[in-house]
Structures are given as C-alpha cells and as structure tokens.
Amino acid sequence: MKLPVSTEWVLHCAATLAQLEPGGTASAAQLAEYFDLPAPYLAKQLQALTRAGVFNATTGPRGGFRLARPAAEVTLLSIVEAVDGAASPYECREIRQQGRGAAPPEDCREPCVLARTMKDAHDAWRRSLDGVTLADILARLPEAAPGRTRARLGQGR
Amino acid sequence: MKLPVSTEWVLHCAATLAQLEPGGTASAAQLAEYFDLPAPYLAKQLQALTRAGVFNATTGPRGGFRLARPAAEVTLLSIVEAVDGAASPYECREIRQQGRGAAPPEDCREPCVLARTMKDAHDAWRRSLDGVTLADILARLPEAAPGRTRARLGQGR
C-alpha cells in the first residue's frame, strides 16, 4: 500500500502557497525550483489540484497557483485525494461468491463483512486527514518559516 | 493507494480457518478450490501468514493451515500486515531540505509536520483494524455459515 511520491510534493506545495501574502501566487517552475523537483511532472500534479478546486490557476506574466480557499478551509484530505483519488485501498472482488465455498445469494445481499471492516478503516484514515487543515500545518511551522518562504519566492513585503 | 488483491484472499482464508473445529486444518489446495483462486500464488500468501505467526502449518496427509491463536486474538491488522507490511503508505523523502526552499538544519530536527500528520492517519487506520478480530467477523456471519464451511471442507461432525 503506497501513495505516489508526488503526495509529498503536493502537500508541501500547498503548504507553501498557504504562506504567501493574500493574492500571491507561485508558478509550477518556481515551486519545482523551490523543492528541486521535476517541473513537468510537478505541473501535472498542480493541475490536478486545480481541477479538484483546491488551487486556482491564474495566467499572465505574474500568473501561477494560489489556494482556492483560505488555509483554514483546505484539509489535507482534499489535497491527497485530488491527486490519488478517494477509493479505498482494499478491493473487494466478491470471492465469497465464487468457488466451492460460494455463499448462497441470500447471504450476499449486504456487502461482505470483511469489506465493510476495511472500509471502516479507510474511513478512519479519511477522518484523520479531514481534521487537519493547512492552517493547522502553518501553526506548527517554525515562526520564521513563512517570512523565509515569501522572501525566497520573491514575495517579501 | 492500493492493497494487493491477495488481501481479500488472506482475510477470507483466515475467516474460513476460524470456522473449523478446534484442531481442524485446510490445505492451500483446499482453500484455493474453496475460493477459486490460483493455488501457487495463494500458497505464498498463506506461507507469509505462517511466517508472521498468524497461521500454523502442519505437515502429513491431513496437514494444512490453522490459526495459531484463538479467533478472538487474531486481529484483521495482523492478517493484513502479514502480507502487506506495516509501512505507512506515505513516503517522506525530506523534500523540505532540498532545492531553493531548503529549510535550515535547525528546523529539521523533528520529523516534518506533514509526515507526522500522514502518520497520524495511518495510525488511525491501524487502530481501526487492530480493533476487529476474526471472532468479531464470525459473529457477523449468517448463522448457517460455519456449518456450511466445515461441511464443504469435509470437516462436518
């Protein structure tokens, strides 16, 4: 069970955008340089975040990405699921209904109890990430971090 | 984020062994036929469960697999992690320390707050599966299921 490496990228990019002044943006090229990441692949992930409504993309010479909502309204779950989808990692192929042990149809009207239990666990994972916003993350960064982030992205006051 | 299809296999095999009479066993070939699964690949998974101490393997003409502990002491987490490992699906490659935005070393003595948040979610997933045992699963099966399972595996009284 693995999330793609780009999960770390988009979480850090989102946390970076959350540190900019209101209205500030950062381009895919800037963010790629900021974290030393492959720009074309990162750009695809940032576009997925935009399609999911987590980022806004602006065009023009000073265009780039910014959060579509205040940091306190952007959960880590929304970021992770924008690039990895919301599907449970457990796939139920209904093997209870196949082979010599196939359960009778009347016992299979409800989802399999094992699939339900795995779904409960996935729901617990989702609730955990739904309970943390980018504002919570920023509150746990060192005090000097946001100023440094803005300065290095050329957005100091 | 995907678990292997064999996760469903081992959960159902474990639940099946939990329905046998005390001391009863089922072989890899029996379980493969029971669920119409590829026997060699299933056998590898069952061996992983044995190495992890979830199953015992007995040899001889009536040999096979059985639970190493009472069903009430076998958690779904122990089964899933026996075949998929206990690693978090989120991989932190410390991109906070690379590129133009690299955080200073003194800010990186603690694990990254994003990695900690992702670990919290994985811990929530693990706690959920650690709170459900095979005995809980059996209690939620239709009343007739265990007798049918034993009969079809040639272990009726």
TrEMBL record, chains A, B:
Classification via Pfam families: Rrf2 (PF02082)
Q: Which domain of life is it from?
A: Bacteria
**Gene3D superfamilies for this protein:** Winged helix-like DNA-binding domain superfamily/Winged helix DNA-binding domain (1.10.10.10)
InterPro entries the UniProt entry points to: TR_Rrf2-type_CS, Tscrpt_reg_Rrf2, WH-like_DNA-bd_sf, WH_DNA-bd_sf
Q: What PANTHER family does the record tag this protein with?
A: TRANSCRIPTIONAL REGULATOR-RELATED, WINGED HELIX-TURN-HELIX TRANSCRIPTIONAL REGULATOR, RRF2 FAMILY
GO function terms (MF aspect):
DNA-binding transcription factor activity
Q: Which GO terms describe its cellular component?
A: cytosol
Spell out the SUPFAM superfamilies in the cross-references.
Winged helix' DNA-binding domain
What is this protein's record name? BadM/Rrf2 family transcriptional regulator
Q: Which NCBIfam families match?
A: rrf2_super
